[in-house]
Hints:
202 residues; 14 strands; elongated
Amino acid sequence: VCWSTIPNPTIVNSKTTQGSGNTSFTSNITGLIPNTTYYVRAYATNNEGTAYGDELSFTTSIDNFCDAINYCQTPFVQGGEASWGVTTLDTYNGSASVKSGTISHNQSSWFETTITGPADISFWYKVSSESCCDKFQFLINGVSNLSIGGTVNWTNHIISVAEGTHTLRWLYSKDGSVNTGSDCAWIDLIQITPIVTSLPSL
């Protein structure tokens, strides 16, 4: 088969070569980009040239956590009673986001990564929870920088960190009673940009 991200792929694009003869073949396509539409056609080549079968199309899913939040430069660790998961049902940028895991009272769901500063940090969050007591928090080195409960649509949070190593944690946690709304938080489009400090001129 041959495939491409534009219609009517040919053997000039990506292709597999399965063998020869008048029989059936099975091809495996690898190395595809998440959340991308591909077009694929079977082909056969002989001394007269190349003929193509009917075109099919499909869209790859987003299974990778870091792809969903658009940030894969540093590894993420998950913790709490339930892991955050990839969702395409509610997103800021239109492709995918991550959603906190399903938890009960006095439980939490979090993920974190460690970066080196100085850096600018930006991400989008959404919350649907009990306003007083079930909170989404963003913590830097264990200190809460943002704490939000209630019904909050997609909102951008931006902060800078100084030089050094910083652990960033996105946390959703519940108190001992009451379930309200979707009872979760969503995160999308994390951007962590190093701050380049200029050298003094001589």
